[in-house]
Amino acid sequence: MTTTLQTSPALERPDLLAAPVLAALRSWSVPSVPVTEVLVAEIDPELADTAEFCAAYGTTLDTSANCVVVAGRRGDETRYAACVVLATTRADVNGLVRRRLSARKASFAPMDAAVESTGMEYGGITPVGLPADWPVLVDPAVLAAGRVVIGSGLRRSKLLVPGEVLAMLPNAEVSEGLGRPVSTD
């Protein structure tokens, strides 16, 4: 059974936003897109993972964006970045992201480190409200997708945003080649 998303302007439902996301929206500074265009929808937290969410709420993978936290290490130093790619792709962690972080090794950040560093729930991490010193790498396909569904910082809700606003977030970098097609093998 498909359920329709019931949306509201995000700032009207602060209970559906993680604290850093709420703070970022309250200080929204994207002049071409009013904050009222950032919508939020309450969802079943058991359906927060992308495939389950899309099946339950009738959303397509090519309008759902995933935000993954990557840890890059060189010696004793660890640097973090967020990667935003469509759900039809995977982030090029060991190539593009590793080089961007000037790291010898890059991998998905451990869950506890990602949660602690972002102040968001695992499975709900979003590019809105991330730490100010993190690069936010955004695949161009996300910008071209129109309105996309992303996390809200909580597993029990999702944000709906015009894709192009993700390139306007603090520290955002449009990174050609970030999203690699998912193998169907």
TrEMBL record:
Matching InterPro entries: YbaK/aa-tRNA-synt-asso_dom_sf, YbaK/aa-tRNA-synth-assoc-dom
Alphabetized CDD domains for the sequence: PA2301
Entry coiled-coil feature ranges: none
Residue ranges of domain YbaK/aminoacyl-tRNA synthetase-associated in the record: 45-166
Gene Ontology MF terms in the entry: aminoacyl-tRNA deacylase activity
Pfam families named in the record: tRNA_edit (PF04073)
Protein name: YbaK/aminoacyl-tRNA synthetase-associated domain-containing protein
Source organism: Actinocatenispora sera
Lineage: Bacteria, Bacillati, Actinomycetota, Actinomycetes, Micromonosporales
